[in-house]
Amino acid sequence: xxxxxxxxxxxxxxxxxxxxxxxxxxxxxxxxxxxxxxxxxxxxxxxxxxxxxxxxxxxxxxxxxxxxxxxxxxxxxxxxxxxxxxxxxxxxxxxxxxxxxxxxxxxxxxxxxxxxxxxxxxxxxxxxxxxxxxxxxxxxxxxxxxxxxxxxxxxxxxxxxxxxxxxxxxxxxxxxxxxxxxxxx
Amino acid sequence: xxxxxxxxxxxxxxxxxxxxxxxxxxxxxxxxxxxxxxxxxxxxxxxxxxxxxxxxxxxxxxxxxxxxxxxxxxxxxxxxxxxxxxxxxxxxxxxxxxxxxxxxxxxxxxxxxxxxxxxxxxxxxxxxxxxxxxxxxxxxxxxxxxxxxxxxxxxxxxxxxxxxxxxxxxxxxxxxxxxxxxxxx
DNA sequence: ACTAGTCGAGACCGATGGTACCGTCAAGAT
DNA sequence: ATCTTGACGGTACCATCGGTCTCGACTAGT
Lengths: 185, 185
Fold this sequence. Notes:
homodimer; 185 residues; mainly alpha; Arc Repressor Mutant, subunit A; 2 domains; DNA-binding; transcription regulation (chains A, B); TetR_C (chains A, B); Tet_transcr_reg_TetR-rel_C_sf (chains A, B); TetR/AcrR family transcriptional regulator (chains A, B); HTH-type_TetR-like_transc_reg (chains A, B)
């Protein structure tokens, strides 16, 4: 077994693929393998050297972007922290491009097991962040259901599209959940 | 302009197509046009005489089945009615076959605008039923957010698969939502 | 120099959603 | 009774998509 020989993988290629995928998602264009490879100036085989399936590519592209938003600075109260986090999340997720992206992610995850695994990991990470905020103020309360209520409303509204996902909705929901958690503690 | 001539449409064909689609969904097999047409002993063209796209077929098939569950008999209190309805909904939706069906529905809706329209109509109908239960006891409260919390948790958990959707979860959620509505009224 | 392994590019494959066309069949119009 | 209209089952066909295979070019370690 040799250590390693041959040409090394090009990180620039990986970055270009992810950038192409995010661009297509943001523009609402159909995210096909050919489109990604073409826009990234990359061979399709190169994509499969880095990811096991198309869904995995798309999900990693979006996960990378989504992780950036996570205001965890404390405002001095459970209510304040919760409102800040949920409102910021709703505001970001409610933009048309972002909502379209999230819908695309679910669409991929429902058809590709690799993508489903990445989506599960991504959502687990987001729930964990919210859970940490709650735990900071109410360490002994069972927050699983409350956390699912927050992200449930978010995803449900984005997928169905019957109600708005914006700052106001986030604040209202945060206040409701905070009161619910207070009552349960 | 003549009134109408020619052979009439065969409702048996429509029923056979819907039955084939539901069967495939329930069995977890890939729901392709060819599979539907083959199992229903029907030409593909006949499917397109009744529906505009594949997604619309699948959604109508599932909508038909889902509408059947709707216990609206009153138990004597908001808490009781809510618990009965939500628990029954969670129990039904949490079965593996049904959950797979719901995931399939979303998958279709995300790729087909006709299917999306049917899904929007279907979910609106379900929300309306829950809304009516709440309105019976608290006619003046704004229940939109509470309703979305219930169905949000349901869909979110089914799509991500990180937590169970069963009778116990439904009861816990119903109790929480009932308390929240009481506090808001 | 040699070798192994990545690179972009494109041909290729199987499956899928959807359309076109066929001969057949049923029912209202004449 | 015959004609006309349009749905029927079946099948060939098309474009597109995810994914695989192959190719010559390139590059870094042996």
